[in-house]
Design a protein that fits this description.
Elements (H helix, E strand, L loop, with lengths): L2 H22 L6 H26 L6 H31 L8 H25 L7 H27 L6 H23 L8 H25 L9 H9 L5 E7 L7 H18 L4 E6 L2 E5 L7 H9 L4 E3 L2 E3 L3 E7 L6 H15 L6 E3 L2 H23 L2 E10 L4 E13 L2 E3 L1 H10 L3 H22 L7 E5 L2 H4 L2 H13 L7 E5 L1 H6 L1 H14 L2 E7 L6 H5 L5 E4 L1 H7 L3 H16 L3 E4 L5 H9 L4 E2 L10 H11 L1
Parallel strand pairs: 6-7, 9-11, 11-12, 12-13, 13-14, 14-15, 15-16
Antiparallel strand pairs: 1-3, 1-6, 2-3, 4-5, 8-9, 8-16, 9-10
Length: 629
């Protein structure tokens, strides 16, 4: 068997492996991979046809059949050559809109081969001249040029878009490029070693197949499968090359309040409408509820009024109406400004109007000064957290049975250059920078140190225990749990003095893990309070199956109970259900005498709010307790 036939069958096997890999990955629903699959099947057909043709040509009986296979393979090959170019460039550049005049160049090989086949047949019939000489090789040369262009152009794009490609795929792509170049050099200088130019064809065909597959995988990871919008990585790449362009960020407010299904349907409705507004521009889904549009060098904000007008009406999902609030920020990307900083500014601007009636905000010199001040404050807060400048303030918890303050909650304050900063100013910043866990650790450390100091000095601590807030990230971290035990042991504090307040989100994120951690710390002596009950998940059955000592009912339920008797009955039923299984109850946000009288009717065990005590240091708390007594 000649080298060319071996080459064809080897390349065909390679393509078959990719097809099998495609099915094993269960990616059949992806449009990009379906296109690749079609091309790969064509490639496999070409290799089989060409291989069979080479085998049949050595048998005189099947010589005519071999010629038919040869013609078929050339036709298939021509289509593949152009198809590869169109598809690969489309994947690399992410849209065939930019190809424009490339189309003409890419169809030339197909046109040429059709002409060649016709001329070849005419010359054979009319002049009995075999056309498989000059014309045959010219046709192949044109096809080689097509693949050589792909070989050179695609690795360049591979380097340009390196950040958006998986490292493994990037390395594979460059490996094929090097192999292709080496083979090209070998073919040029040592052509007498190779029996037929078709082997050269097979190699380039295989290379193009590999590149197409790699870039389709890259396309897959850069496209959000639900909305069919490009994702954050692609957005960053395009923003980098969009100096002077107007950039819009649209954020759906309170998106996390919707269920997964409802949220998805709402997002699809919004995206479908935005596509009609921004049909000429590229959109990107950069987070679950944020969409960015690069609209080119235009500052036309009329589209915002269209969006606002459209979503004043509720969106209907399966018969239910949902009100949508969309905020938009607009900025003109400056030259040499990083894409990350542009997105950062867009997010910051939306934060400025998040709690207002404004629907959009445009970056200006005044906004720049405001954001610079905010950024400076943010840096101070992050620096203070890193230095451990957390100051615990304590709010007393009043026991109805004991008629005095018997517990307290440690509330975080931050000392920034001598100024005490309330949590409303630094908690959102810490959440954005994912530094809340540092706050948790610092708070626990400071509370334990104060208790240790008071014990050492003989100062009486007039409460049964102190509760401290913890996030899901910390409380579900086994290494941090071990760290907590060690910290309590080192400061020689009775674990029964410490309680942890956690929100319902901890339960939702990992119910079984939360239960195991709670049981472990309960056995150690640390109690658990459920904070803000009634504001989120509120699965009473799940909550009551966990070892909570006390359930803190959120102020919103108290406010609702003040509105009508129906809400009072609901709150009364919730309190009775919790108390019936031995858990304690507490209502937060009690600020007036009327609140106290109402709360006492529900049979709760504890009350917390400004009516009894405003947050203060431990010395002031002890003084308040003594005065009340």
């Amino acid at each position: 068997m000649p080298y060319s036939s071996w080459g064809d069958f080897i390349c065909g096997a390679f393509v078959l492996i990719i097809i099998i890999f495609h099915f094993l990955n269960k990616s059949k629903k992806n449009t990009a991979l379906k296109s690749v699959l079609f091309i790969l099947v064509s490639v496999l057909s070409f290799n089989v046809l060409h291989g069979v043709s080479d085998l049949l040509v050595y048998n005189k009986v099947t010589l005519k059949l071999a010629l038919i296979f040869k013609y078929l393979s050339i036709i298939v090959f021509s289509i593949i050559a152009s198809g590869f170019e169109i598809y690969c460039l489309g994947v690399i550049k992410d849209t065939t809109k930019i190809l424009k005049w490339h189309y003409l160049i890419l169809v030339l090989p197909v046109l040429w081969n059709i002409i060649w086949l016709i001329i070849n047949k005419i010359t054979n019939i009319c002049f009995e001249v075999e056309g498989n000489t000059i014309i045959y090789h010219v046709a192949y040369c044109l096809l080689f040029l097509c693949f050589i262009f792909a070989m050179i152009y695609m690795p360049i794009m591979c380097l340009v878009y390196k950040r958006g490609i998986y490292p493994s795929l990037f390395k594979v792509g460059l490996t094929f490029t090097i192999f292709s170049a080496l083979f090209g050099i070998f073919q040029f200088f040592f052509s007498f070693f190779i029996n037929n130019n078709v082997f050269f064809t097979s190699v380039f065909l295989t290379l193009s197949t590999a590149y197409t597959y790699l870039y389709s995988r890259n396309d897959l990871i850069n496209i959000d499968q639900m909305t069919n919008l490009y994702m954050r990585n692609k957005c960053m790449d395009d923003l980098t090359a969009s100096d002077g362009a107007s950039v819009y960020m649209l954020e759906i407010m309170r998106f996390h309040h919707f269920s997964s299904f409802t949220g998805d349907q709402i997002l699809i409705e919004i995206v479908n409408f935005l596509k009609t507004i921004f049909n000429k521009y590229t959109m990107y889904r950069v987070s679950s509820n944020q969409i960015i549009v690069i609209v080119g060098k235009s500052d036309d904000i009329s589209k915002i009024s269209l969006i606002n007008q459209e979503f004043r009406k509720p969106i209907n999902i399966q018969g239910d109406d949902y009100s949508i609030d969309i905020k938009t920020s607009i900025i003109i990307k400056k030259k040499n400004e990083t894409a990350e900083h542009t997105v950062y500014l867009l997010e910051k601007m939306i934060n400025q109007i998040k709690d207002t009636n404004e629907v959009f905000i445009v970056y200006s010199s005044e906004m720049k000064r405001k954001l610079e001040i905010e950024e400076n404050d943010t840096n101070k807060i992050i620096k203070a957290i890193n230095k451990g400048s957390v100051v615990p303030y304590y709010q007393g918890i009043y026991s109805i049975n004991d008629e005095k303050i018997t517990w307290c909650e440690a509330l975080a304050r931050l000392n920034v250059n001598g100024e005490i900063i309330p949590p409303s100013k630094f908690i959102p910043i810490l959440e954005n920078h994912r530094c809340v866990n540092k706050l948790d650790r610092n708070m626990l450390c400071q509370v334990l140190k104060e208790l240790k100091s008071m014990n050492d000095s003989g100062t009486r601590v007039d409460v049964k225990g102190i509760s401290i807030n913890f996030t899901a990230e910390d409380i579900l971290n086994q290494s941090f749990i071990d760290e907590i035990k060690q910290m309590v042991k080192n400061q020689e504090i009775d674990p029964n003095m410490i309680s942890f307040e956690i929100c319902e989100s901890v339960i939702i994120s990992n119910f079984q893990k939360a239960k195991e951690i709670m049981e472990e710390l309960n056995s150690y002596g640390i109690k658990f309070f459920l904070d803000d009950f009634g504001t989120g998940f509120s699965n009473l059955k799940a909550v009551l199956s966990l070892p909570f000592y006390l359930i803190k009912i959120d102020k919103s339920l108290l406010d609702a109970a003040k509105e009508n008797t129906r809400n009072q009955q609901i709150l009364d039923g919730v309190v009775k259900a919790i108390n019936s299984i031995g858990m304690k109850t507490l209502i937060e946000g009690v600020e007036t005498k009327e609140d106290v009288e109402l709360v006492k009717n529900f049979g709760v065990n504890y009350i917390q709010g400004y009516y009894y005590h405003k947050p203060s240091n431990m010395t002031e708390l002890n003084k308040t307790i003594e005065e009340k007594v």
